[in-house]
């Protein structure tokens, strides 16, 4: 009985690991750009000692303003791996996850034009260890998203003058 239970636990762990390994490849390309931006900024920090990989999406929002322009918000988790930061492995996606370190909770807001990342307005990236995330930080993330999407400056029917 104990052997069956152990086998079941091992199979479940293997399936969860395989699912997480595939999570990044399942993302649409436009969301991969935001994850890559967060990873780039995270890896540039001297205080970050581990290599991180995309683990899973928590929330996604999209605001299409027309003419191929979209504003995207992506809340996701990055998980530390056993590979050293700056490792020159050909496929960093194959680095196994660590379970002895906290997840990195990230939110990115950015503008795309024809699915290409735009520099203006500047993309917003915020990552912090999940246990340290506060409600105030979460509110700030959403406020930034609202500001970015509501200040697009486009003309509307209600704003046009006929006089």
From TrEMBL:
Residues 1-20 form the signal peptide. SUPFAM superfamilies: Cystatin/monellin. It is found in: Secreted. One of its GO terms (cellular component) is extracellular region. GO terms for molecular function: signaling receptor binding. GO terms for biological process: cell differentiation; chemotaxis; inflammatory response; regulation of lipid catabolic process. It comes from the Eukaryota. Keywords: Chemotaxis, Differentiation, Disulfide bond, Inflammatory response, Secreted, Signal. InterPro entries: Chemerin, Cystatin_sf. The keyword Flavoprotein does not apply. This is Retinoic acid receptor responder protein 2. It comes from Fundulus heteroclitus.
């Amino acid at each position: 009985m104990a052997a069956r239970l152990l086998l079941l636990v091992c199979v479940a762990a293997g399936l969860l690991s395989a699912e997480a390994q595939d999570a990044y490849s399942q993302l649409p390309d436009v969301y991969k750009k935001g994850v890559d931006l967060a990873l780039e900024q995270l890896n540039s920090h001297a205080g970050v000692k581990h290599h991180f990989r995309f683990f899973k999406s928590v929330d996604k929002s999209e605001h299409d303003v027309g003419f191929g322009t979209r504003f995207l918000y992506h809340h996701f988790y990055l998980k530390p791996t056993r590979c050293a930061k700056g490792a020159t492995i050909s496929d960093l996606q194959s680095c196994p996850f660590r379970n002895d370190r906290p997840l990195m909770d990230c939110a990115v807001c950015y503008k795309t034009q024809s699915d290409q990342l735009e520099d203006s307005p500047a993309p917003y990236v915020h990552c912090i260890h999940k246990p340290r995330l506060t409600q105030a930080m979460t509110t700030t993330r959403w406020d930034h998203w609202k500001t970015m999407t509501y200040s697009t400056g486009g003309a509307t029917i209600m704003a046009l003058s006929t006089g």
